[in-house]
Write a structure and sequence with these properties.
The structure is a single chain. The chain is mainly α. The chain is built from 5 helices and no strands. Helix 3 crosses helix 4. The protein starts with a helix and ends in an 8-residue tail after the last helix.
């Protein structure tokens, strides 16, 4: 498995998603807002109540790009 696929697979796990979000300094609500999703959706993905969608790693890459371009403030909190 190449690096991209390993990273993609990790982000599709609840622990991987939470780790990525925390590393970016984002709260669940801030991530939900950046994705155009509900806070409940992010919470369910991170708690493994719902599967992390296959499209999420690509969306997170876009979020990270937008944050870097705009020097986005961290969301703080949980």
């Amino acid at each position: 498995m190449d690096r991209y696929r390993e990273h993609d697979a990790l982000l599709r796990t609840p622990a991987g998603l939470r780790g990525w979000r925390e590393a970016q300094g984002l709260s669940r609500r801030a991530l939900a807002d950046l994705l155009g999703m509900s806070f409940q959706a992010v919470t369910k993905w991170e708690s493994d109540a719902r599967p992390v969608p296959a499209w999420l790693p690509l969306a997170l890459a876009e979020v990270q790009r937008r944050m870097a371009e705009r020097d986005w403030p961290s969301g703080g909190g949980t």
